[in-house]
Amino acid sequence: MPIFSAFLWGVIFATGLGLAGMTRPGKILAFLDVGGNWDPSLMLVMGGAVGLTFVSFPRILRRGRPVLGDRFDLPVRKHIDGRLVGGAAIFGVGWGLTGYCPGPAVVSLVTADAGVGVFLACLLGGIVVGRRVGARQTIQPGAVESGAIEAARLPGPSDGT
Known about the structure:
The chain crosses the membrane at residues 42-61, 82-100, 106-129. It contains seven helices and no strands. The protein has helices at residues 2-20, 25-32, 42-61, 82-98, 102-107, 114-136, 148-152. α2 packs across α4.
C-alpha cells in the first residue's frame, strides 16, 4: 500500500506542477527576470504551498506517526553551515540557468526534450559527487542532537495532552 500511495501522491504532485507551469523553463526564467519581462504568477504557487505547509505541518506532527509509516523522518541538523549554504547556492544557480528544479525536471521527462535529459544527468552526477564528498567529511560534535526529532514532536492525542 505505501508504494501505491507514493505513486498516487507523485501523480497528484506532477499534475500540480504541470498545471502551475512549473515544468516550462520559460515560465520559471520569466519569474526570475525581475528586471525584464517579469511574470509574478509563480508567487501564487509558492504562496499556496507555503501557506498549506504552515497550516498543516504542525497538525500532521501531532498525530504522533504518519498514516502509512512507523515514524516521521525529520531533519536532525539544527545549524546553518557551509555545506547547506553551498548546496542552496548550487541549486539556485542551476535553477536560474536552466529553469528546472528536480521535481519539474522529472515530470518533464515525458516531453523527451534533450535539455531535460542533460539537466537530470548533471543532477545525478552532482548527487554522486556530493555523497562522495559528504562521506569524507565528519560531522562536528554538537551538530546533531540525538533528541532533535523528539523536540520537534508537538503535544497531541498520542501523548495524552
